[in-house]
## 1
Amino acid sequence: MWKALAALLAIPVGALMAAAPAEAIANGESVPDGRYPFAVKLIDNGIPTSDGGSRDSSCSGGLVSPHWVLTAGHCFQDENGDRVDRPVAEESLAAVGRTDLTGEDGHLAEVVEVRQHGSADVALARLDRAITDITPLKLNRKKPAAGQKARLVGYGFTKATSKKTPDRLRTGQFRIGGIEKTEMGLSGVSPKASTSPCERDSGGPYFTEKNGVATVVGVVSRGPSCPHTGPDIATRVDAVAPWILKVIKSDLAAAVKPSAKPSAKPSRTRESPQAAPANAAFTLPPMTLLSIPVIFAATIAIALAARSTRRYRGRRRY
């Protein structure tokens, strides 16, 4: 039964559906300013099409390290609909930590590299700069449990008749249902049972929160037209976590690299002598003052002796 349902939901949520434009996180709610800063909108302007033209599109995603965004694999397809390991548009951007897209908070970076998973519908998009002031999502490493709740954030449409995505991040809460080897189904819980991800929510993170830590458990992959009360399909993060970590490990290491330890040996740097102030008085130690008469007398005696010697030796040649 689960296999049949998966086949029925085989349409990517992020694909442009000609039959009926979908909503995004339908029956969801707007996110307050500053919440869920790890949320990412991937913006592709000028994607080549098979007829020689171009189109614009977008996906959602989540920051998992300073340089890398986790999203759906089908968000990067060439003109033939094949997933590719590269940015596909003339302009490929990522808005990170920008709850309101009309504002200037967060970051706007360029996508410069894409890594596709070999089989699962997930990809990693590398940014041209490190995002260091936002805490990335933690990766789930355990198999999720049926009945577990998770939250989703995304930047998709809000109405079936929409021609453009909303300017504000949207969210909703879901419950995990059937679990397969690399995928799972999730159904809406709140604000309504029909809360569901839709077009351009592809790649959006399903996550849990505990003690202020957000852990991504799934990535939006595909589902039926929305809104609806049935499950949508997401890629399980725990199933692809080893691959994700392999790609981003150097980035994570750089982000937590400790500062250099101080040397155990004292520094051998030679200090330059400090010049005395211009108005400083010239003083000598007391013992030096007592020795001046003795030194003066000895100097006179040596001079007289030298004069006597020159009388017998004559002039010095030059």
## 2
Amino acid sequence: MDVYEKLEELQEKALHDDKIRNSLLATKEEKDPIVAFCSKCQEFGYEIYPMELINAGEEFYATMRRSTNGGGENSPKLSGEDDMYELFMAAIQEMHK
């Protein structure tokens, strides 16, 4: 299972389990939120590591850039689009509303 599948599965669990969702959301308040998030993921049985999470975001964004506007170097950088942690957190926060 790759990091995208792990995050998708964990997001689905967070949708149905307030304890998981609140634990993951609380990582935003930590000194190093990505490390705290990965530790929580591991507690919940998902082996996700900081560099793996960062790399997944960069790969996701690179794929998106290649698929739009010809994928050239002049494609504009979209703020936050390469940050899987922030995208995940936004998704589970939105579920909570």
